[in-house]
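Box 3.1 A note on notation
Throughout this textbook, protein chains are presented in two layers. The first layer is the amino acid sequence; the second is a token string describing backbone geometry. Keep the layers aligned when reading.
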Amino acid sequence: MKHRLTSKKTAAGGAYCQLRRLMPCLIFIAFATFICSCTRGASSDSGTKGVSSVSDAKTHEWAERVANEMVSKIRKGHPRIYITPERIIELKGQALTSKKYQFDLLIKRMTGVHAALFYALGEDKALGLPKTREEYGRIAAETLMSSIKGGGKVNLDELALIYDWAHGALTDSERKAFVSFCRSKIGTQLPVHDNKSHGYRAPPSPQGWLPILAMYGDGIDDPYAKKLLIQGIRDTLLDNIAMEQVAGKEGGFADGTGYYLLVGGTFHPFLALGIATGSDFFFEHEVLTKIPNFLIYSMLPFEIRRMGWKAGSIYFAMFHDNWTSTAADYGSPGNSFRSKLAITAAEFRRRGDERSAGLYAWLLQQMGGIYYMNGDVVGFVLMDWALKPKSPAEVGLSPVGALGWDEEKGRIDRDRFGKKAGIGWVSMRSSWDNPDATFAIFKTEPFRYHGHQHRDSLGFMIAKGEELAIAHAGNYMVWYEGGPLRSNDPGWAQMGNFFSRTISSNNLLIYNPSEKFDGFSNDGGQRAASYWDDKWGRTYNGTAEGNNRDLGGLIRFENGKDFVYAAADATRAYNSTSVATDGNPPKVKLVQREFVYLKSPKGDDDYFVILDRVDAVKPDFKKFWLLQLRAKPDFDGKHRVAVGSEEGGIHLSDDTSFAKVVQEKAELSSSFLLPKQGNRVVRRLGGWVTTRLKQSLRATDNGPLDIQVESTQGLPDHPVVIITAENPNPEKETFSQFSIWPKIIHADTRPAGRRVCYFCEGKTSSGKQPAKLLKCIRATRSAPGFDMPEGARVIQEFRHMGIEGADRDRDAERIDYPWGYGLGYNYGDGNQYGLWRIEVSPKKASNYDVFLNVLEPSMKGRGHLRAELIESESGNMYGAFLGSRAVLFSKGPEPLLKGSYRIAGSGKVSQLLCNLTPGKNYRIKQDGRQIATAKATRQGTTQFESQVSKNSSFEFAVVD
């Protein structure tokens, strides 16, 4: 079958057919520019400034009630914003001790708001203030009046602090002038959001809370102030429900880690209201009080160092739209996240929660601590320089955290209205203090919350000393560099076709050749679930259990003494009998993953046992189990080169049951138990092949054109090539140094390298001369054109391949979606993410297939994985035997009532039985003799030990 790369109807030519009209705006924040990406055309957002789009009566009634309750609790008198008479006592003591340096700076940098603070502190000679309280009061009052009468740009929040803190120094006419001025500036309602940062994208950014909060209760215009406070609190709460839902009880965020910079729009308004009411409002509703917990559980145990850095930095797991985000990135002085974290830690201490205060202070320390405040009066009032950082180990934080799981109730987390909530990440590590600790995350979000999520429910990552099984292959922020090939600025959408898709993660593909993905490639993965709902846009009512954004999620979680067990159902994440989108028919009836982490006392003998169940609608829908890697894996079986070469390409093996990838510090061993040998093909994809130009190219050669090369040997049917005459740059192309990362270049005005990319419809056959790439089109928007001399390198990658032709076992028809390691105006970590991947597939056509794989992360040279398949005599269960440990699962999704199996080994074996009926008692026999009666936990597991002979038989059954 011929693929025409220039046709919109094909996987390659149609890769961008929707992208150009979906191009979002760039948002410039801190160290980077971020993009809001989406995969559907409907982009109406029903939220309007100041008015929540949520109309559900239940949520509206709740928000109205809370708003009225909070307004009724606002303390009488002043000050009330950030400081109260009770807090002033503490603040004065700190000004003489832990905050003395900052206090002296305030005196030197004095402005009207500083004068207002000094007035609020009262007469106290010990403070060493050079002026009297009365003098400071007059300075504050004069600043307030001059700002009001000056006609220039003013900061209403700062004026509110002056009004509140120096209230006693103001005359009645000055107070009335402030109230009148605020009313003229604010109008009839408090703005809640800007139509961008709200709902599931980020918390809203309400405006005007502080001045209205300052004036309320003074008897000047209380009805106006009360009306606006109720409206502002109510509407902000309604819009913020979405972020509260994602955060759950333990913290979570649906976008990539870099997007935490968007969090905090409600921070100061919520904090001010909480202090003014003497309530827990801030901790109950501000998601930033929970997100640091999510960051800590997302933090890898070891540091990375970028080229040019003298020191390393810890960094965070990289799911969703982002590149490597380090603690140093969050610690940038221009980033308010760090200051908000410092304030949150201090508020925990004031609340009496020393554990959380110390833990958050530790995270703050990783980011560089409290930065130089330079007379910041709000920072002085709210931060605490005396806080003692305490590491996760010091505070006794569990090394295992299921974010989005309610352990008390043994079910997925629920929000205040009963809807599924949380991020659905299970974080596991063997130690908090050891940089070589085993670390893993298993993820399965309950909803498609927002567009920066990827279609990777059931994905996982594993690390030990360095990343091994990576969260995803590819890199963010390349997709906008090109449009459709027939457009005026053709490019290549790695983002839309690969990076944001299931195929780039450690996951499962089910390939229905006729499945459509709104113009993007058919990767066999999870369906489109647009976060742009026609009615609700980004807001809370956009998700509902059973609608097209419901992805399933965690169904079981248990943290045992020597194991972690998590199970998830992602049937709804695919076009399935439960839900289908974009006019597609169902392709699956069931997709489930069971993920078991077998712990060891020192973390040096850890394993991951992963069982997957896939029930396809048709037996000929090909299935793929994916493992994304950073280095080339070795097989224990023979292999053949399907396309490419030994150094880079697609390699197939029919008899491989074991693979190992060895990196700088660590290694990952993989044992493939199911499908069984004889019904299993293992592919290895990655690397690249290189040929040379046999002609020169001009910068204006945009095509279509034929390009003469030295050879087409090893190239796929539809080459996608990068051409460059530059020598490899060791500061960028760090393909083997996994602890040293390239520098980030983002949205620069200059290209990252002199490289061009061409997409070709075909090639001349291997061995034919002259060898040519046929009908090639240059990605003109990905980079400017450059003259390329004869002899320039022509590089064909295999590390970001799709699965085109999979239904016909035609690997040569696969199309690569290259990142380009230096092509375009961006540069990051993509060259290290996904150099190779493994695919495991059954050979025989079948509706129902089970995958069972065991992974062992270990330090280099210390791996000793030996896994054997356990199969029940009745065929109703499978398991893995690892010498002294065994894990068994049900073949189907139904709980096991009974089972029997054999283990051929010797010595004591600890056995973990999963998928039992929760709460039922089971009689366990070995070689016909009862050895235990065990009650299944509410997550359906039980564990026992026994001495195993050469071929011991085991059976279990529910006790009547």
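The CA atoms of residues 877 and 890 lie 4 Å apart. The two ends are 60 Å apart (CA to CA).
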